[in-house]
Design brief:
With about 375 residues, the protein is an alpha+beta fold. About 35% of the residues lie in helices and about 15% in strands. It has eleven helices and ten strands. The strands form two sheets. It has a seven-stranded antiparallel sheet with strand order 1-8-9-10-6-7-2. Strands 3-4-5 form a three-stranded antiparallel sheet, covered by helices on one side. The longest helix has 26 residues, at about 5-30. The protein is globular and about 60 Å long. The termini are far apart. Residues about 1-50 have low confidence and may be disordered. This is E3 ubiquitin-protein ligase hel2.
Length: about 375
């Protein structure tokens, strides 16, 4: 090859690289160009297995002996905030002795409520595929080898607890979301940045706490959180944080509410009439619970979507009282109207159950 020809070839390669970089910056980074899906398809084959953080395996682990984690996130005065803490990739999913009961409930709810509990917006399929492949092909069998096992040269994953088998590669988005929903307890929303705003593009949510998850699909964060009192105080900070969240730097937070029934599926808003509350404000204390969500945020490396996942815990308030922390929870209930978001008192329906619950927790009735 002559020297001049070599120079021309080199220049051609450089120009092509520059054009590719411009296309990526224009369409790939903002997630809203017609070339997005094609670019992802071109790189998917090479990067399909790229999201493989170090996962600590629980070898010889007995899930039936694992107690549910105990969280007491309440404080005397409620201040709305992000309250984030660092998390590890190994803790993305949690399993304890309630696992089989919970996934059976989820399977029943998915049959009964259908698309209310899962959905995918146009263009969200690539994010679902990324999450599904990571969970089924890598994370679950690596983290929980006594619960999940790969078979068929890695083409299938078998749940050793339920006996059910799923492919490790996504067939279609809706089927894959249902499979995730009956395999793990965590509910999940995929959030994508579009034109500087984050919106939901897919979800599987069997245990919503006071909302219909299907109404949140393809909505921006501020619209999703519209009913939340004083959300405008933290909305801009959340948008900025979502934009800066890095791959491998997952975070977690906790949220809590009191409920006067044992239902995990709550489609009605918190301030709707609570089951178990009489017209005189009396409640059945045996079916009254502190409900806590352990929420996690994880950046996906290929699509750059954010996975918002959460696991729901129910603690009988009788247990809180027996621990000796009843007065602390009572103070936190009353503190819902004392901080920077006083609307939380009504939003969480404190006026319906607070008198009876606080009296019980303090030993006054």
């Amino acid at each position: 090859m002559r020297f001049g020809d070599a120079v021309m070839m080199l220049l051609t390669v450089v120009v092509a690289a520059l054009v590719a970089a411009v296309i990526y910056r224009r369409f790939g980074k903002t997630n809203d160009g017609p070339l997005r899906l094609n670019l992802l398809k071109l790189t998917a084959a090479k990067r399909r297995d790229s999201w493989k953080p170090d996962i600590v395996p629980l070898k010889g682990w007995d899930w039936t002996a694992e107690e549910p984690r105990k969280f007491r996130p309440y404080k005397p005065v409620y201040h709305i905030g992000m309250g984030l803490r660092a998390d590890t990739p190994s803790d993305l999913i949690t399993i304890d002795r309630d696992y089989l009961d919970r996934v059976n409930i989820r399977r029943h709810l998915l049959r009964e409520h259908g698309n209310i509990l899962h959905g995918c917006a146009p263009g969200g399929e690539d994010g679902v595929s990324e999450v599904y492949g990571y969970l089924m092909r890598h994370y679950l069998p690596a983290r929980f080898p006594t619960v999940f096992a790969l078979s068929g040269n890695g083409r299938e994953i078998r749940n050793l607890v339920t006996g059910r088998t799923h492919p490790t590669a996504m067939a279609d988005a809706e089927t894959s979301l249902r499979a995730i929903g009956e395999t793990v307890e965590e509910d999940m929303f995929l959030v994508r940045e579009t034109a500087g705003r984050h919106r939901s593009v897919a979800f599987i949510c069997c245990f919503p706490a006071g909302f219909n998850p299907s109404t949140k699909l393809d909505k921006a964060l501020e619209d999703i959180h519209g009913p939340v009192p004083s959300y405008e105080r933290i909305g801009p900070s959340i948008e900025r944080f979502f934009g800066k969240l890095q791959v491998g730097k997952s975070v977690k937070r906790l949220n809590w509410v009191i409920q006067t029934h044992d239902r995990l599926l709550m489609l009605e808003p918190h301030d709707s009439p609570h089951p178990g509350v009489s017209e005189t404000g009396e409640i059945d204390l045996e079916t009254t619970f502190l409900r806590v969500e352990l929420q996690t945020l994880t950046r996906l490396p290929l699509t750059r979507d954010i996975l918002f996942s959460f696991k729901t815990y129910l603690y009988p308030i009788r247990q809180i009282k027996e621990e000796g922390s009843g007065p602390d929870l009572a103070a936190a209930v009353e503190g819902l109207r004392l901080g920077n978001a006083p609307g939380m008192w009504k939003y969480k329906a404190g006026e319906q159950w607070a008198r009876a619950v606080c009296g019980y927790l303090r030993g006054e009735n």
